Amino acid sequence: MPTLDERFKGGPPTREPADAHAWLSAEERRFILWGLKEQWSALRIGRALGVNEATVRRFRKRFWEEPRLLLELGLYEMVGSVRTPEYRCLVCGEQALGRLATERHVLRHYLEEAVVMATLPEVASNSAHQSQDQEGGEKKLQPRHRVPRRQRRL
Ligand SMILES: [Zn+2]
């Protein structure tokens, strides 16, 4: 897949005047993200796209509130094999390792670190937590659910 730079080398996606009030397409959203990466103002991005500056701002506000939206826009691709998956960021072309690391990397282009980590926290490990409950009560650790082993029926 092309990086954002490659994708918009020839300019922004165009829309017909009749579509002036249509929703932003995925391609237009990607162009906005390209423009933000290039530190363009919302006004400049809007003019290039033929949409309102407010439309650009609204999209930005939306992904600030719902960062996962960014991960639905095809901003990274798998470059490794299925056995050893590696991913490449299509915002900057850099290669990161592993899906989670790459998704965080992509979000970091547009969001603060705290937001990135809140959106994509560490995967909870399976290791049992040391019981350090300070809650006074006799709070017992919840037993982990075990998938019952299926009885073999012959
Ligand atoms: Zn990147």
The DSSP helix count reads 6
Question: Mind telling me the C-alpha Rg?
Answer: 22 Å
State the secondary-structure class.
mainly alpha
With strands numbered from the N-terminus, the spatial order across the biggest sheet is 1-2-3
Overall structural domain count: 2
Mean pLDDT: 84
Q: Output the helix-strand order.
A: HHHHEEEHH
Q: Which small-molecule species are bound to the chains here?
A: zinc ion
Please provide the count of β strands: 3
N-end to C-end Cα span: 50 Å
Low confidence ranges: 127-143
What is the percentage of strand-forming residues?
5-15%
What tags apply to this protein structure?
mainly alpha, 3-stranded antiparallel β-sheet, 6 helices, 6% strand, binds zinc ion
Describe this protein's structure:
By secondary structure, this protein is mainly alpha-helical. The chain folds into 2 domains: 65 residues, no CATH class; 57 residues. The protein has a 3-stranded antiparallel sheet with strand order 1-2-3, covered by helices on one side. Strand 1 and strand 2 form a beta hairpin. Helix 2 runs antiparallel to helix 3 and helix 3 crosses helix 4. It is globular. About 11% of the residues have low confidence. Bound molecules: zinc ion. Zinc ion binds next to loops.
